[in-house]
Amino acid sequence: MARSVLVTGGNRGIGLSIARELAAAGDAVAVTYRSGEPPEGLFGVKCDVTSSEDVDNAFSKVEAEHGPVEVVVANAGITKDTLLPLMKEETFTDVIDTNLTGAYRVAKRACRGMLRMRRGRLVLISSVVAMSGSAGQTNYAASKAGMIGFARSLARELGSRGITVNVVAPGFVETDMTAALGAEQQQAIYKTIPLGRPASAAEIARVVKFLASDDAAYITGAVIPVDGGLGMGH
């Protein structure tokens, strides 16, 4: 039977790749998107994860369309990179509100149905910079590191109900965002990666698919790096 799946920020990049991977495996997949159009062939719901009301409405629409949500991937995120001495307070808090507090809003609403079903899979998309840090990204790194503590605490709260909570930490991934970097800049980054290349979005998606599967039923509170060795030792 097809499971009801929700991927936040699922209209492009890593989120869309995750949504397509899970749909190809037979799940009924819905995605949230903040701007633009919903992706073709997937149930799309407009939602800004900085609004609890938006998140609640999105879940209600997905539940009406596909039934209680059994798998949630908290992927929606933003970057606003600035060196700290130049960073305005709202540049810091906006990133925290979307990436970390957004994940809290989504997970909290997801728990409602999962606790009733006594099963569920929560996967949070963090980043290699959560552990390694990155100059100009104090806001982003703090939000992504916060996800790890949040997920591990939630894993302890929900484990007895058959609900797993895990984190995927991607490294440098080929997306529209990274394509904007110059060739020279990209080559310099590749030199820091032991595997010498970026990840494809599909390589991230397949790890998420595994964590959402029955094969990963005994994995919870884990942080899975998919970074070509970039964050090794952290």
UniProtKB/TrEMBL annotation:
InterPro entries: KR_dom, NAD(P)-bd_dom_sf, Sc_DH/Rdtase_CS, SDR, SDR_fam
PROSITE patterns: ADH_SHORT
Gene: fabG_5
Pfam families registered for this protein in UniProt: adh_short_C2
Location of the Ketoreductase domain: 3-176
Assigned protein family: Belongs to the short-chain dehydrogenases/reductases (SDR) family.
Name the UniProt record assigns to this protein: 3-oxoacyl-[acyl-carrier-protein] reductase
Annotated SUPFAM superfamilies: NAD(P)-binding Rossmann-fold domains
Organism listed in the record: Sphaerisporangium flaviroseum
